[in-house]
Each structure stands twice: as C-alpha cells, then as structure tokens.
Amino acid sequence: MERTLVLMLALLGVPLLGAVIAGLARGRATQVVAVGASLVTAILGIGLVVRVYGTRASFPLGGLPWLAGSTPSAAEGATGAGLFGLAIDPLSSIMVLVITGIGFLVVLYSTEYLSPRNAEHPVREGYQRYYFWLLVFLASMVGVALSPNLLQLFIFWAITTLCSWALISQSGQPAAIRAGFKALVMTHIGGFAFLFALLILFAFTRSFEFSAVGKLAGGLKAGTFVLLLIAAWAKSAQVPFHTWLPEAMEAPTPVSAYLHAAAMVKAGVYLVARLVGSGWAVPHGLGLLIAVAAIVTMFMAVLAYFRQDDLKKLLAYSTIVHLGYVLVGISLGVMGSRVGYQGAALHILCHGAAKATLFLGVGAIAYSAGTRRISELSGLARALPLEAVAFMVGALAVTGVPPFSCFWSKVFIFVGALESPGGIVLLILLATESIISFSWLLWVAQKVFLGRPSVAAATAVDPPWPMSAALVVGIILCVVVPYIGLPLVKLLTPGGF
Q1: How far apart are CA 266 and CA 98, in angstroms?
Q2: Which helix (DSSP H) or strand (DSSP E) does residue 87 occupy?
Q3: pTM of the predicted protein model
Q4: Which residue ranges make up each domain of the chain?
C-alpha cells in the first residue's frame, strides 16, 4: 500500500480512534488521549502536505456495484476515482493544514479552559463527551478536505453539522441547547439543497464528481450550482442563513475558535472553491451572484459590529465578513481572475490563524476576568499582557495590516478585483469594510486593555500554561502562515489544478 494512502487513512483514523478512547477514558487520561491524538493528527497532516507538495494524489477505495457509474472501473461516471476514496491537491492541502494545526491548538487549550478554575463558566463534568465530539469534528473536517467527490463530501459535511450541534449545546444550559438546535436546523436547510443537487447530478450525469455540474444542460447546470451555493451559504452563515453563527457563541470558547477558524463554516466556502476549481467554466452570471451575496452579507455583518457588547459575538460577525471575502475571491476567479481565486484560498488559511488567535485570546480573558462584555472590561493589559498582545496581533492580522496574515490574502483579492469588470467599485467596497473593521476593533482593543482597570480586570490573573502556549503559537502563525500558504496557492487556478 502506498505510503501516501497510509498517511491519509491515518489522518482520518487517528482522531476517530482518539475520540472513542477519550470517550471511554476517565479523569486526566481523557485529556492526555485527546491531546495526543490531536498532536499526532497535526503531525500526520503536515507530513502528508509535505509528501504531496505541489502535486495531486487520488486513491479509489471502492464503490457500490448496484449503483451504475459508482465503481472504480466505471468509464465516465466516476472518472476512474470510485465512489469512495481519498484525494489531495494544493487546495485540500491548505484545508488540511488549517484543520489539523488549529485543531491541536484548540484541544491543548481546552485542557485548562474546561476546568473548575474558569471564572466565567466553571466546568466539572462532561469532559469525555466534549473530547469525543471535538475529535470526531476534527476527523470529519479532514474527511471533507480529502473527499474526491460530492457524495463523500456530503457524508462528512453532515457529520460536521452533528458535531457542531453537540459541541454548541455542550454546557446543557437552555440558551446553549437553543443555539445548537438552531445551528442544526439552519445548516440542514442547506443540507437538503445539497442532497437535491446530488440527486440531479446522478439522474442526469451518473456521476458525483465535482466537475459533473459542468456536464448538465444550461438551465439545469445553473440551478444545480445555485443549490450547492445555498448549501455553502447555510454552512458559512451567509445572508439569509447568518443568524445561527452569533447565537452559536454559547459554545465553549475553544469550540467557537475551531468552528470559526478551521471547521464547519470553512467547509461551505471550501465547497464553492472546489466546484469553481474543478475544471468547468462557471457562467459569469453565477460569479456575479456569489459576489453580490457576499458583499451584502459583509456589510450586514459590519453594521452589526456596533451593537455588540459580547466580544465573542463581535468576532462572530467578523467571521461572517471574512467568509464573504473568501466568496468574493472565488467570484473573481469565476470572472477570470486567477489572482483573486488564489487570494480566496490563501484567505482560508490566513483568516484561520488570525481568528483562532482572537477567539483564544477572548477565552483567556473570560477565563481570568469572569466576563467577556466590553462594557465591563478596561485596563486588562496590566493583568493579562499576553492576552492583550494576542488580541492586538489577531485584530491587526484579521483587518489586513502588514506584515500580518490577512494583508497578503487581501492584496490578492484586491488585485483580483482590479482585474475584473467593474472592479474599482468592488475595490472601494472592500477597502471601506477594511477601514471600518480596523477602526472598530482598534477602539474595542483600547477600551478593553487600556485605561483604569475595571472591577473584573482587577481580579484577573494569567491563565495556565497550555492556554498561554496556544496563544503564543497563534501570534507566531499570524506572521508566518502566508509564507506557508503562498507557494501552495500559486499552483491554483479557477479552471482546476
């Protein structure tokens, strides 16, 4: 068996095995197993990306003989890939790095965040359940990234929805249960659209390949693509499906960090990027639809900034904005800009590092001060200097200030806008968003960290070392991830790798 396939199977199997063992273990052993499994997964992810760097590897693992066109030997329907299998290329390599790297940081951080010492939400039980679902979440996102076709991606897609429901509802509080149920329902609306698209594809093309959409007739092609776009909008919390994501902030903060930086919401934009890069010409009208919907979503979310007193909800709306950025870049790829499409892929990685750092920083603040309300916090920099640095670096990175991560991906997207028809209008809109977001996050940072210490800040103390270590790594990633991602994205083109 080829070593690359072994790595891919291990990348899926290790977190699943870890989830089972962590779910059965007791006491400190649960955390040890979870950290070990996530660390091994991260190492395997890096090793896999290094091994296949700049190439594509695909391995069929079988099909369903009774389903015509589903087996590895089918001539047209499965394009030699089989109904089930594993595949990796530069685009999925970016996803693997985000999923496994941030996944390890989140698990490590969780070992101290979920404890009786948490001043905001003391936790004394439910550890086995938490680590079980978190590791299954990690494995299912790996499955999304490595899926060679739409059917297999849909299976893992559904598992990520189940995991997010369980993790958002982790605390068992009524608000958390409602938020988890809302996330489950709203993302499943997109799931039904995805399923309907699969039925159309198989009925008319006998294929579930990403490129099968291009084989449909004109109107049917556009309709199927829109169905898949609806699935992506629901998953990535774009208008009109955006309301579930801010409410999902009832989840433990490490879950919020993973949900926003590397997991479920990134699956939606990844689906669109994969479709546009699968080798068929997406009509420009559909590209315009993606861009308009993304811009509307971005400015809706920006306007919501000013009503937020909860730091996590503020970051949630920021995530909605940046998922819009990825979709704008993808739409520029549809319009013919390779640079814009590359910027979208790079933004998945760069935003992941920045947003993980921000969320983990906010979690450390709440852990120590007992609140994450902007109105109740000031002067925190004296008590929590590392958290202050992490929040500032994350804010500068996510708003695109050089030399931090999102500066580089935004440059690609801005250049792509100028390469496209009417791009100057789009560029002005994107620049306006960047200025507003930078100004508001800067105001929030000075309000929370500078000035006379508030009552909450006066009692805050530095969190334990696993949380601090995750923040230090996040700060470093905000600087270095563009240099990791740039060589990979330069290999991408809207027409396929």
Answers
A1: 10
A2: strand 84-88
A3: 0.95
A4: 3-489
